[in-house]
């Protein structure tokens, strides 16, 4: 017998448990498009904006769309900003939305339709989005293969399958993740890494008791552009250094070096 699909009234009631926390930084030309994609969800939920770089542009958009805006004091830092966004969300479920990206109208519907109190985090498939059009690359296809077993709750509760889905690279698209605060508690990001903090966080969660569920639907458009943080880390070789650190958290160093020789080819996505 298959999983029962919730009706719209059930989903609307459950939506009260979810928040989109939008991380806004400086004056991104993509922020308004991100906001519009979130407000265009088939199931409406809760919304807030957080920033550590307050300015008129962000405040104007927050006012325009009636979204509360919270300012974190102190120097901008990805991990501190994400934790601030996570903790400003008062609901059980929170999705930290990245200002560059777009969310398909049924993102919330698919997350809530998969709701289970045992699930630590949910992650969905995504579409690379480059120069204003949907793109495709071998990386996203490989990631789907790596996460294959975790789309089934039966397998997604076992540490082996959860860790192995992350053992050959970061297979999870960070903006697509929804976290369960009841199970994960406060301050979910506790990595010493700057670029690989999301991968490190997902690995830590994978090693916890509970389910890390993959929803195999393309529900996020992941924007690839020259100002992306990922590209900056590639150019200064910081990504390569931190990726090696992550592989060593799963494999002996000699195996990590071997995997790294192939994994570095994934950086071509940002060329």
Any idea what the CATH superfamily is called? Spore Coat Polysaccharide Biosynthesis Protein SpsA, Chain A
Tell me what the CATH architecture is: Alpha-Beta Complex
For the largest beta-sheet, the strand count, sense and barrel status come to:
9 strands, mixed
Radius of gyration, rounded?
Answer: 18 Å
Q: If you consult CATH, what is the topology?
A: Spore Coat Polysaccharide Biosynthesis Protein SpsA, Chain A
3D structure, described in words:
With 271 residues, the chain is an alpha/beta fold. It has a single domain (8-226), classed as Alpha-Beta Complex (Spore Coat Polysaccharide Biosynthesis Protein SpsA, Chain A). Helices cover 38% and strands 20% of the residues. Strands 1, 2, 3, 4, 5, 6, 7, 8 and 9 form a 9-stranded mixed β-sheet that branches. A hairpin with a 2-residue loop joins strand 6 (119-130) and strand 7. Helix 12 crosses helix 13. The radius of gyration is 18 Å and the shape is globular. It starts with 7 loop residues before the first helix and ends in an 8-residue tail after the last helix. The mean pLDDT is 92.
Produce a short descriptive summary.
This protein is an alpha/beta fold and 271 residues long.
């Amino acid at each position: 017998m298959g999983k029962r699909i919730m009706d719209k009234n059930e989903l609307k009631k459950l939506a009260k448990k979810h928040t989109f926390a939008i991380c806004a930084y400086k004056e991104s030309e993509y922020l308004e498009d991100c906001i519009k994609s979130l407000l265009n969800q088939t199931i409406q939920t809760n919304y807030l904006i957080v920033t550590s770089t307050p300015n008129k542009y962000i405040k104007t958009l927050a006012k325009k769309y009636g979204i509360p805006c919270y300012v974190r004091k102190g120097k901008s830092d990805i991990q501190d900003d994400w934790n601030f966004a996570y903790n400003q969300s008062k609901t059980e479920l929170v999705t930290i939305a990245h200002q560059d990206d777009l969310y398909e109208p049924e993102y919330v519907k698919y997350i809530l339709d998969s709701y289970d109190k045992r699930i630590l985090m949910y992650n969905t498939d995504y579409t690379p989005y480059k120069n204003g059009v949907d793109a495709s690359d071998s990386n996203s296809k490989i990631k789907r293969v790596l996460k294959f077993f975790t789309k089934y709750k039966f397998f997604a509760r076992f540490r082996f399958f959860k860790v192995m889905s992350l053992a050959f690279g970061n297979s999870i698209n960070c903006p697509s993740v929804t976290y369960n605060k009841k199970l994960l508690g406060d301050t979910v990001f506790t990595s010493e890494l700057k670029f690989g903090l999301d991968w490190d966080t997902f690995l830590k969660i994978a090693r916890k008791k509970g389910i890390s569920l993959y929803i195999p639907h393309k529900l996020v458009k992941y924007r690839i552009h020259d100002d992306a943080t990922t590209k900056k880390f590639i150019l200064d070789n910081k990504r390569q250094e931190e990726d090696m650190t992550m592989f060593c958290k799963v494999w002996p160093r000699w195996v990590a070096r071997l995997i790294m020789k192939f994994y570095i080819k994934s950086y071509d996505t940002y060329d």
